Each structure stands twice: as structure tokens, then as C-alpha cells.
Amino acid sequence: MTESIPTATIYLGSPFYNDDQRARVVQAKKLLAQNPTIARVHFPFDQNFVDPEEVNPEIGGIRSMTWRVGTYQNDLSGIINASCGVFLYDMDNIDDGSAFEIGFMRALHKPVVLVPFTNDPDKVKEMNLMLAQGVTTIIEGNTEFEKLASYDFNSTPAKPVMGYRII
Q1: What gap in Å lies between CA 67 and CA 75, rounded to an integer?
Q2: Comparing C-alpha atoms, which of 46, 5, 17, 12 is closest to residue 29?
Q3: Domains with residue ranges and CATH for the chain
Q4: CB contact at 8 A, 86 and 113
Q5: How many helices (H) and strands (E) does the chain have?
Q6: Active-site residue 101, yes or no?
Q7: Cross-strand bridge partners of residue 119
Q8: Which of 26, 2, 37, 59 is nearest to 149 (CA)?
Q9: 156: alpha, beta or left, given left = phi > 0 and alpha = psi -120 to 50?
Q10: DSSP code of residue 86
Q11: Gyration radius from the chain CA atoms
Q12: pLDDT surpasses 90 at 62
């Protein structure tokens, strides 16, 4: 067996709007930090763009054009500079931003590891066709999350989406 060399650069995509999503990111970062094939992890919320002229952006939900352009460009740069994407996908609260980032990454011919989660394990497992066929590998978040620490991000072996009703 050859020694693993940390060459992979990861774009860690995830919604970050509730406590469950934020906790998953913390855990994913710990697992990815243990992985011997990873050189760097980029998480967009660690690189938040700040518009110094924006006052109380959390009130009202309407962000400045400067913030929107800066955030969008920073996220695209993170994807462009990554060799692989890891997406913590909340199956209970589908996030359009994550879906866009996955599509953009695949358009750049970069592998995507999808890690879907649900808080309702009895829920029927279903996934959109474009997402299911678009990702390279699936690691089930509720049962296989720890595999992020040992997955070979240098060769990114495929593991197609199975066991989901495709819609």
C-alpha cells in the first residue's frame, strides 16, 4: 500500500441556517481534517464577505448588491480552486444554493461527494434526478458520515446514488 499524500482541495458546501446544519459542518470539518488525502478545506461561511456600508443586514433579509456580488464571486472562486466538492445536503430543507454549487462544480468536471441528511429516518428516501445522477459519490450522512475521514479524495472513487426514489 502506498502512502496517502494530501493533495485534494475541498469545497465544503452546506446550508448554514439552523443548529442541525451548523453542527454537521463542525463535525464534517473535524472528519475532513483527519483525512490524509486532503490538503485544504474551503468553507464559504469562513470567508464571509462584509460590505462595510451595510447597516443591520440581518434585519429584513435584503442584502446590498455589493454583498451579493462579493459573496457570489467568493463562492465561485472557492469552487474553481477546489479539486472536489463535499456537500452536506439537508433532505428536510432543500437548499437551492447548494444545488447550484453542485451543478456548477459538475459543469467544471469536478467530482462531487454528496452527504445527505434527514432528521426523519422513516421518511421515504427520494432525490431529484439531476442531483442523483450529477454527483460522483454518495456517503449517507445518517449512517456513514465518518467515512469522510478515510475517503480517497485524490482518486474520488464513484459510488452512485442507490436506494432513493428518483423524482
Answers
A1: 12
A2: 12
A3: 8-49+63-166 (3.40.50.450)
A4: yes
A5: 5, 7
A6: yes
A7: none
A8: 37
A9: left
A10: E
A11: 16
A12: no
8 Å CB contact between 5 and 35: no
User: pTM for the whole thing?
Assistant: 0.94
User: Is 90 exceeded by the pLDDT of residue 108?
Assistant: yes
C-alpha cell at 18: 439552523
Question: Which member of 3, 54, 101, 144 is catalytic?
Answer: 101
Q: Are 154 and 129 in contact (CB under 8 A)?
A: no
Provide the phi-psi class of 142: left if phi over 0, else alpha when psi is between -120 and 50, else beta.
alpha
Provide the edge-to-edge strand list for the sheet that holds 112-117.
38-42, 8-13, 84-90, 112-117, 137-138
Distance CA 75, CA 46 (A): 11
C-alpha 71/C-alpha 76 separation (Å) is: 9
Q: List pLDDT tens digits, range 30-56.
A: 999 999 999 999 999 998 888 888 887
Q: Pick the closest to residue 88 from 102, 77, 68 (CA basis).
A: 102
The owner of cell 456537500 is 87
